[in-house]
């Protein structure tokens, strides 16, 4: 009897990229938009003789959102950031495979922006794969698109424009990686110089005269010790935000922090707020030091401060944390990141659910693992902000120190 054909899922990602026909017009969250004044970006595939949305397969170990922005740039040359998720398309392929394509609303950004600097360079798709790209009005695009599923996605985008739901804001909740083991933490503390008198900030270590130039691996392992330098360079005020005695990021957590750059860049994050926790600050170091945005330390985001005063005091701090999250949800500014730990993170997620639409408010509370983000997409109307969708994404950093699975072999 022949063996059954394997069932395999092929994961792809792309975006419906839109812009105003008038280059001087800017999107305003909550504003109803006439579809006739916008354009959408399509690609032509000579192999299939069709017009479709830019998309492509995710590479091994690549997050779907990173694949979406990479594929759009490869196929169109356009750098984009992602907004709200759209309907996932699924269809059968040959050989027992199923293709699953994830789409987001995409908006173009100008060349030379921070998002371009933060992303790996890409090569344009060959002309045998994509030979033409076109910006077209939704009416014209509906006549050009070949697949019925692509036209359904376009109808969804047009409906969002008419209803004032196309331009949204984004709030990202980040769970930092794990802290270093106590022994490693003590060794790190012993190796670091003391703070500069009157500043509370540790100076950068002086280079050893016989030491060779630092390699990328050495730079990565030193990221935690450079957190103070990032804080000084950030535009946020750090006065009054004392640093609790907690462990820094582990070596694996540092590696995750570097991989998080792709996720934060994909959603266009330009600013971040961090609690005084060492891990909450340090996880943003690679992103901020590469020009991703400013980091503001917020003392009130620490739910553990004053824990000796009793549960009533902690509940009062959690209420202030939820109020801080509600204020961020009401903003119409650029995407923001909240890097917090413990009960503070749980309180922020609860506040996001409280502002959610029916399906969001009744959904299970998402539990983030280390190195994961929760992305809330906020629509703005006359009755205030409404979280229309949220999604979770994580880095795929490999941990060589993790035990092998049973039956797995290491060579």
UniProtKB/TrEMBL annotation:
Keywords from the UniProt entry: Hydrolase
UniProt protein name: NUDIX hydrolase
Signal peptide residues on this chain, from the entry's feature table: none
Biased composition (Low complexity): 212-233
PROSITE patterns from the UniProt entry: NUDIX, NUDIX_BOX
Example GO BP: ATP biosynthetic process
Residue intervals of the Nudix hydrolase domain: 23-159
Chain ranges passing through the membrane: none
Chain spans, region Disordered: 184-246
Gene Ontology terms for molecular function: bis(5'-nucleosyl)-tetraphosphatase (asymmetrical) activity
Annotated organism of origin: Schaalia meyeri
Domain of life: Bacteria
Xref: InterPro entries: His_Pase_superF_clade-1, His_PPase_superfam, NUDIX_hydrolase-like_dom_sf, NUDIX_hydrolase_CS, NUDIX_hydrolase_dom, Nudix_hydrolase_domain
């Amino acid at each position: 009897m022949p063996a059954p054909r394997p069932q395999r899922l092929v994961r792809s990602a792309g975006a419906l990229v839109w812009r105003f026909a008038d280059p001087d017009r800017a999107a305003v969250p909550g504003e109803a938009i006439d579809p006739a004044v916008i354009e959408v970006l399509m690609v032509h595939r000579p192999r299939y003789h069709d017009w479709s949305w830019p998309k492509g397969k995710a590479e091994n170990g690549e997050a779907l959102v990173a694949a979406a922005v990479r594929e759009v740039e490869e196929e169109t040359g356009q750098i984009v950031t992602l907004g709200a998720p759209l309907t996932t398309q699924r269809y059968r392929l040959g050989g027992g495979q199923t293709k699953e394509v994830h789409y987001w609303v995409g908006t173009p950004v100008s060349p030379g922006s921070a998002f371009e600097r933060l992303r790996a360079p890409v090569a344009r798709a060959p002309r045998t794969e994509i030979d033409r790209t076109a910006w077209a009005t939704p009416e014209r695009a509906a006549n050009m698109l070949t697949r019925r599923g692509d036209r359904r996605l376009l109808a969804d985008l047009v409906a969002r424009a008419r209803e004032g739901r196309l331009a949204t804001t984004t709030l990202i909740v980040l769970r930092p990686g794990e802290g270093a083991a106590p022994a490693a933490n003590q060794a790190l503390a012993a190796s670091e110089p003391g703070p500069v008198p009157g500043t509370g900030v540790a100076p950068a270590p002086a280079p050893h005269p016989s030491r060779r130039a630092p390699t990328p691996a050495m730079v990565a392992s030193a990221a935690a010790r450079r957190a103070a330098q990032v804080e000084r360079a950030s535009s946020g005020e750090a006065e009054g935000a004392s640093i609790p005695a907690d462990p820094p990021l582990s070596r694996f957590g540092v590696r995750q922090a570097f991989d998080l750059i792709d996720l934060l860049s994909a959603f266009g994050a330009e600013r971040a707020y961090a609690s005084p926790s060492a891990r909450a600050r340090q996880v943003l170091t690679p992103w901020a030091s590469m020009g991703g945005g400013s980091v503001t330390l917020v003392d009130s985001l620490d739910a553990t401060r004053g824990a000796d005063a009793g549960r009533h005091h902690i509940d009062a701090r959690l209420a202030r944390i939820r109020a801080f999250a509600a204020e961020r949800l009401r903003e119409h500014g650029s995407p923001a990141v909240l890097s917090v730990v413990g009960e503070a993170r749980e309180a922020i997620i609860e506040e996001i659910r409280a502002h959610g639409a029916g399906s969001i408010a009744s959904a299970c509370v998402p539990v983030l693992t280390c190195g994961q983000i929760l992305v809330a997409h906020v629509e703005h109307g006359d009755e205030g902000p409404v979280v229309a969708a949220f999604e979770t994404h994580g880095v795929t950093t490999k941990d060589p120190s993790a035990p092998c699975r049973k039956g797995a072999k290491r060579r």
